[in-house]
Amino acid sequence: MRYLLTFLLLASFLSSHAQDILGAQILIEKGVKLHDNGLYDEAIMHYDSALAIDPQNVAAMGEKAMSLLAFNKPQEAADLCAVIFENFLGSRNLEFVYTTYGNALDAIGKPEESLEIYDKGLVEYPNNAHLHFNKGITLTGLDRYDEAQTSIEKAILLNPYHAGSQNALARILKTKKLDVMALMAFCRFMVIEPESIRAVANLPYIQSILKADVEKKGKKKKTITINLNPIDVTEDDNGETRPNDFRTVSIMLSFSAALELDKKNKRKSEAELFQLKMESFCQTLAAAKADNYGFYWDYYAPYFIAIEKANLLEPFSYIVYASSKSKSVTKWIRANRDKIDAFYDWDQQYDWSN
Prior knowledge:
There is one protein chain. This protein is mainly α. It has helices at about 1-35, 40-55, 60-70, 75-90, 95-105, 110-125, 130-140, 145-160, 165-175, 180-190, 195-210, 245-255, 270-290, 295-310, 315-320, 325-335, 335-350, and strands at about 215, 225. The chain has a two-stranded antiparallel sheet. α4 packs antiparallel against α5, α10 (about 180-190) runs antiparallel to α11 and α13 packs across α15 (about 315-320). The protein is elongated, with a radius of gyration of 26 Å. Mean pLDDT is about 90; it is low at about 5-20 and about 230.
């Protein structure tokens, strides 16, 4: 009889504990939905309720830290992450906690400590794109652009569809005046996020790169000055070509900028002129690909070459210009949804491992 009573008490305890865990999980799931809807304070309340039921719930702690950071309480987020790593290091699914901790430390003015956290996380999770990306953002804030570029390139290799990585890389490259490489990253960003506030901000960068240093002098006689000293030259002290040498492409961009001064292109819209320039750009990439190497030749160039070969430059061009809110662009997109959809079907199937 004593054994039966003990068994019944144990079964009752296990059943109650299982119910507590389930109840905490339901609260966490509700908290995540609230966080995703921007209701960070309510999300935090749900995580606290979950922790009242199950004080050792690492998932609830990690989600709470993320909501605290989003709720502009980075110090509290950092403190909570420190508690998690002090007491639960080795637990499963700590990938996002490393990211939250690093972001929080960066936000409170401790970028060097932030980098240490990202590096520790990358030892455990070397293929986590968000850790590479956020490390790159912190390095950018320290003006360590070469290191930042390397980190974000790794993030992009792991996730070609993350708009933030493409945006950050494009801006780093533009800061370094590596315009051909910046153009490719900016265009890739526009494909992923064509009509956002960031797209509106990035379109002028694309336009400035493609305009180069071309001008028309005189009313009757047209004189075009073209910059033949491209910045995208990468040679070492011995004159040996380094990776990502885009001299040929830079010169072509300067020449293609003159297309908009041609009489026959006078009536063309900006999107149509962009398509013309990108056609020359892609064909030049194809012609020079065999003689060059490096991340941008091996990763980005094949993508643009493939777009041109697949006859998708037209929808691609209107996607890039979607944020311009031009009436002609808006009209074309509305009338050609099938072409836009065809481009995105192709894009989703593109093999980035080539």
